[in-house]
Amino acid sequence: MAVGPFTLMDAGLLGHQNGSINPAGAAMVAVLVLDAHGAPVVGTESTYADISGDESGSGDYSPVVLSLTVSEPSGGVVMVDMAEADFGSVVSITARYFYVLQGGANPVAGDLILGFMDLNDGGGGDVNSINSDFKVDANPSGLYRITAA
After folding, report:
1. Three-class SS of residue 95?
2. Does 132 reside within a domain?
3. Where are the alpha helices (DSSP H) in 4-51?
4. Is there a domain that residue 1 lies in?
């Protein structure tokens, strides 16, 4: 499967810049959303309430707490990276989108969305794991980078 790049939501970028989202200091969680949700809307999706109705309902699925790191600025660029999100090694899970939210293991309506990755970039529909592992990792260059103005 070809996983797409991490895309910051408008509210996620603003939250990172104004401090309402703290990737390195706050609890962060990954949730999986079905293709039925439709393409993520960068300008309007801002909280878990916007995506929760289409969260994966697979029997083995549950949100995963993430470990994010933020690099010290280098040349005016800050890099945010994440450890691999491991949803299990012998699981059956169906999903299309991998969302990162600021919140705990049991997301609530007001948890802020940082951004997402398309788990089937260039393809159509959900991806499936049937009694196998389901892991998501960031690009080797990091989850995303922000350049200081």
Report:
1. strand
2. yes
3. 10-18
4. no
Give me the pLDDT at residue 1, please. 54
The four Cα atoms 81, 145, 31, 126 give a dihedral, to 10 degrees, of: -110
- Running along the chain, 149 residues long, what does each successive block of 10 average in pLDDT? 86 92 93 95 96 93 94 85 94 96 96 96 89 91 85
CA distance linking residue 70 with residue 72, whole number of Å: 7
Q: Would 2 be classed as within a structural domain?
A: no
Q: If you search the block for the tokens 């707490």, which residue do you land on? A: 65
In the 8-state DSSP scheme, what is residue 51? Answer: T
Domain interval for residue 134: 7-147
Q: Considering the entire predicted model, what is its pTM? A: 0.94
Q: Which tokens in the block code for residue 56?
A: 């994966």
Q: How far is residue 82's CA from residue 138's CA, in Å, rounded to a whole number?
A: 6
Please state the domain count of the chain. Answer: 1
- The answer to the question of residue 30 being in a domain is yes
Instruction: Tell me whether strands 64-66 and 91-95 are parallel, antiparallel or unpaired.
Output: unpaired
**Mode of pairing for the β-strands spanning 85-86 and 135-136:** antiparallel
Q: Extract the runs of DSSP E, i.e. beta strands, from the chain.
A: 7-8, 28-33, 64-66, 68-70, 77-82, 85-86, 91-95, 97-102, 112-118, 127-132, 135-136, 144-147
